[in-house]
């Protein structure tokens, strides 16, 4: 509580805003002063008013009040990517086992869902990894029990998607689109939705399921990217190029894909360009 008040004061004074200006008519400046000094707490409604008056977004304040620390989910993902970069499958198995043990000990869904996320990333190192029927049921029960999908559900769905069949992915995507409308104007939610739709188009073209590919392509165009979503637009060029190729427009599709990869190279996005170049080579071998 003291740290939250301290961070509020730091943000307020950095903009040369007085206590009276920060509180407006919502509550007394003496109440805010006690909060800043760690002597008392304030309600969330008053905090939101105060943040608005000092021109600070809630997510900015939470990040600072949390001591500049990433979320536990972000920390776990970093551990996973470090293991993947070293091709250390045993470390991933250890992380997976640890989360399952935590789940059985504390009976909290978060640990089981973490285990599923870890398992999905094992596919990068072991293509034989699969979800068990119990894991499939757990994921289904969780996602379909949440009426409003926020950042957590969207990230979870996106991260676990490598384990999902195309038909299951399609079903979850259709459900997702009906449960994100509360947040559809928020850029972080919107970008995750776009990424999920793009992944669906890639999945469908990899399996040459043109009907499902057409669905994802239509949804992408219905939720099309803003002009400043340049990276997503480039990735869509690649996914759409694969779709064109599968529909028989091979020359046009390949040109579009190679144009997109060339743009990535021009922008010095070398890792992305290399990734999509390698993916194209593998995809062409599989699709023919």
Description:
The longest helix is centred in the C-terminal third of the chain and has 20 residues, at 187-206. The termini are far apart. The chain contains 16 helices and no strands. The chain has helices at 2-14, 19-23, 29-36, 44-53, 58-65, 72-85, 89-106, 109-122, 133-145, 151-160, 166-177, 187-206, 210-222, 230-246, 250-266, 270-287. Helix 1 (2-14) crosses helix 5 (58-65) and helix 11 packs antiparallel against helix 12 (187-206). The model has no long low-confidence stretch (mean pLDDT 91). It is 73% helix and 0% strand. The protein has 288 residues and is mainly alpha-helical. The relative contact order is 0.05. The chain is globular and about 70 Å long. The chain has a domain at 2-65: lambda repressor-like DNA-binding domains (434 Repressor (Amino-terminal Domain)), CATH 1.10.260.40.
Key terms for this structure?
single chain; 288 residues; 434 Repressor (Amino-terminal Domain); globular
Return the structural class. Answer: mainly alpha
CATH topology of the domain at 2-65: 434 Repressor (Amino-terminal Domain)
Going by CATH, the architecture of the domain at 2-65 would be Orthogonal Bundle
Count all strands and give the number.
0
Major sheet details: none
Overall geometry: globular
Determine the N-to-C terminus distance.
Answer: 61 Å
Rounded to an integer, what's the Rg over CA atoms? 23 Å
CATH homologous superfamily placement of the domain at 2-65: lambda repressor-like DNA-binding domains
Task: Assess the beta-strand content as a share of residues.
Answer: under 5%
Regions with pLDDT < 50 over 5+ consecutive residues? none
Question: If helices are DSSP runs of H or I spanning 4 or more residues, what is the number of helices?
Answer: 16
Q: Percent helix among the residues?
A: over 70%
Order of helices and strands: HHHHHHHHHHHHHHHH
| Mean pLDDT over the full residue set | 91
> In CATH's first tier, which class of the domain at 2-65 applies?
Mainly Alpha
């Amino acid at each position: 509580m003291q740290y939250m008040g301290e961070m509020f004061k730091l943000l307020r004074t950095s903009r040369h805003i007085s206590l009276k200006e920060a509180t407006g008519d919502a509550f007394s400046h003496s109440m805010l002063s006690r909060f800043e000094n760690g002597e008392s707490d304030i309600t969330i409604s008053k905090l939101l008013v105060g943040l608005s008056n000092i021109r600070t977004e809630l997510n900015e304040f939470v990040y600072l009040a949390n001591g500049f620390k990433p979320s536990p989910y972000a920390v776990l993902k970093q551990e996973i990517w470090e293991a993947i970069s070293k091709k250390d499958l045993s470390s991933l198995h250890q992380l997976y086992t640890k989360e399952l043990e935590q789940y059985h000990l504390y009976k909290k869904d978060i640990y089981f869902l973490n285990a599923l996320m870890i398992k999905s990333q094992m596919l990068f190192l072991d293509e034989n990894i699969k979800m068990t029927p119990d894991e499939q049921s757990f994921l289904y029960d969780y996602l379909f029990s949440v009426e409003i999908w926020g950042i957590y559900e969207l990230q979870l769905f996106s991260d676990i998607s490598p384990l999902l069949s195309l038909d299951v992915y399609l079903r979850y995507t259709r459900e997702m689109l009906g449960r994100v409308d509360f947040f559809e104007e928020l850029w972080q939610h919107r970008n995750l939705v776009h990424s999920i739709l793009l992944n669906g188009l890639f999945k469908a073209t990899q399996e040459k399921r043109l009907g499902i590919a057409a669905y994802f392509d239509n949804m992408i165009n219905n939720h099309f990217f803003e002009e400043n979503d340049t990276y997503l637009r480039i990735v869509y060029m690649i996914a759409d190029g694969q779709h064109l190729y599968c529909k028989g427009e091979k020359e046009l599709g390949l040109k579009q894909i190679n144009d997109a990869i060339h743009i990535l190279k021009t922008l010095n996005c070398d890792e992305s360009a290399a990734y999509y170049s390698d993916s194209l080579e593998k995809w062409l071998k599989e699709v023919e």
